[in-house]
Amino acid sequence: MQEISHLEILRSGTDIWNQWVAQKPAGFSIDLRGADLAHAKLSDANLAGADLSKARLFQAAITSADLSGANLSEANLAATDMRGANLAGANLSGANLSASDLTGANLSNADLSGADLSEAQVVLANCRGAIMTEMMGYGLNLSGTDLSGADLTGTKLPMAILADCVVDIATIWPVRHTPPAGEAPVT
């Protein structure tokens, strides 16, 4: 009997997927590398630790999903709804997150190096300790986001909205970028 692929199970629906994942032993690896999940409805899915590198998740609904520790490097997440998703410790390096909605998402200690967040909404999100180096952030909205300890070295932020961001002395800003008045790290 042929084993059903992880992708086939995930396409069966979030409830079936989460039940299946719950039955797997600790340390079980989820392999969804390069999967085509464009327009998929994955809200509340347990994808913690999943390998979604180079996956196509364009315009997917991933609200409140658990993607903590997941590998989403070089994934296409453009225009994806990720409101309230848990991406703590996730690898999003080189990912396309342009025009995505990450409002209220947990991106603490996530690696967003080299990612494209142009026109993305990262509002009231937790980016504490995130690696945000060499990102493209044209028109990125970071309003009210906690950037404490985040490293934004080399990140381009033209037309970005940084109102009410939370920063601290450990926040590293791009060279030649001055944080908004009243929001500069304490020196």
Tell me what the structure shows.
The chain is mostly loops. The protein has one domain (1-178): Pectate Lyase C-like. The protein contains two helices and no strands. The mean pLDDT is 92.
What's this model, at a glance?
This protein is largely without helices or strands.
What shape does the CA trace take? elongated
Structural class: little secondary structure
Tally the beta strands.
Answer: 0
Query: CATH class, anyone?
Result: Mainly Beta
Name the poorly predicted regions. none
CATH superfamily: E3 ubiquitin-protein ligase SopA
CATH topology tier name: Pectate Lyase C-like
Task: Just name the CATH architecture.
Answer: 3 Solenoid
Sheet having the most strands: none
Give the rounded overall mean pLDDT: 92
Number of helices: 2
Q: Any idea how many domains?
A: 1
Percent of residues in beta strands: under 5%
The first-to-last residue Cα distance is: 64 Å
Order of helices and strands: HH
Give the proportion of residues in helices.
under 10%
- Nearest-angstrom radius of gyration? 17 Å
